[in-house]
Amino acid sequence: MSPQIAKILACIRRAGPYLAIELILPGGSILALILWLIRNRAAVQRTLASVRSRAGGTAQFAAGLRPSTASTL
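Given the sequence above, the corresponding structure tokens read:
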């Protein structure tokens, strides 16, 4: 078996339980996403940290998400 096929099969094996939840349960997509986020918490935290560092820190990142409070009246 080639290494590429082995990688594809490993990916399918990891995703299998989440795909089954999505197909079987109503609202399964949300549940599968939550379960994936919980199981992969460390990777998600690393990704968020790198996004925040590129944005110049948490305060600037959060400030970009807040709506403007200036009145236009």
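Residues 18 and 24 are 10 Å apart (CA to CA). Try to locate this feature in the token string yourself.
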